[in-house]
Amino acid sequence: MNIEKIDTIKQLFKYEEEWDKLLKYSTIGFSPFMSFTWVSSWLEYYSSEFEPYILSLTLEGDIIAFLPFAVRKGKRRALEMIGKRTSNLLDFIVSATVTRDLMGGFYNRVCSYLARQKNAWDYIYNYAVDEQDSEFRYFWNIAKNIFITHRLSNERIYKISNCSSFEEYLVKKQKKGRPFRREGSKKRRLIKLTNAKFTNDGCVTDVPQLVSTCHDVDLRSWKGNRTDGALWFSEEMLGGFYKHVLPKMVNESLFSLHRIIIDNETVSYSLIIGDKNCWYHFKNGYDNTYRQFSIGTLLTYEVIKRYFSIGIKEMNFMVGDEPYKNRFATTFHNSFQAYIFQRSFRGMLWKQIVILRQYKIYRWFRDKIISIFLT
């Protein structure tokens, strides 16, 4: 069993074919956010902040796992999951043919390897670790015996699964006490009063137009005046990561856009990423002017109907406790934020900083210091 570190983008491109092949037959299955296209694009775009720190694990000459870390440049030497800021579903890529006992032995060796790299990193951070279905969780359980660990509660991961038809899905929601009774009449009322059109743009091809459309809708949403309201499709991202990665993924037919259009203007959108096995409800938004018609809910309802009509096996609403996710999902998994600290002075220092950040007094003190320097 061998561990090799991939620390340059040029070196990473040698593994392109093996990466996607392993991902397809991995324990997590295919995920667009863990695909070689997404990972390499992220590393290229954030190259000024992060360097690759990917560990490849081989057994008898065959690669059985990739651990996609990136190390932050500068004084804050953190190992973080590649894809941070652009997705919250990030994990290790491990061959499904490897037994849990064998992988446990590998994770022990990985921890020993990382423990010797005290000058390279101070802590490992993963924003959302699935409590029930995550390779990182197994790694975390072994790392607790070697490193100092800390966990914070996090939001849930909502999904639609184990439903073979839209009718079965409606029955399941009925049993859970969350039936859909008025969506049909709401849709007819919206169309009658506004001449609204429900569109499915299929695979997106005009990426700049896509990002611009989503950004414009976000600015007219209820949170448009907040800095995080249009963060995912801000002007910076329009000319940045998404412009960088989406054209590459368009060739793989992984993006589709669903919209409600009124007077030739998009008032609600739902951007879906995924393949025939799973759709990820990646980003959605609606114009607050038409909130009385529940246009965001209506569009999600129509997307789910299409999801069943073409035989998709699962729909993932990703991490987040927004009320609409609970309404539409049939199941959920809990998640947590994971910190793994080196047993060193710097590692202990960063642990105390992470703990302090949980308290309001720290945030108040930090904001005061920033305001003093700014004025």
Layout of strands and helices, then pairs:
Layout: E1 2-6, H1 9-12, H2 16-24, H3 36-45, E2 50-59, E3 62-72, E4 78-81, E5 93-94, H4 100-115, E6 123-130, H5 135-143, E7 148-153, E8 157-160, H6 166-175, H7 183-194, E9 197-203, H8 207-219, H9 235-238, H10 241-250, E10 255-262, E11 265-274, E12 278-286, H11 295-309, E13 314-319, H12 323-328, E14 331-333, E15 335-341, H13 345-356, H14 360-374
Helix pairs in contact: 3-10, 4-5, 7-11
Model description:
With 375 residues, the chain is of the alpha+beta class. It folds into two domains: 2-154 and 335-374, Aminopeptidase, CATH 3.40.630; 162-312, Aminopeptidase (3-Layer(aba) Sandwich), CATH 3.40.630. The protein has 14 helices and 15 strands. Strands 1, 2, 3, 4, 5, 6, 7 and 15 form an eight-stranded mixed sheet that branches. A seven-stranded mixed sheet has the order 9-10-11-12-13-8-14, with helices on both faces. Helix 3 packs antiparallel against helix 10, helix 4 packs across helix 5 (135-143) and helix 7 packs across helix 11 (295-309). The model is unreliable at 226-231 (pLDDT under 50).
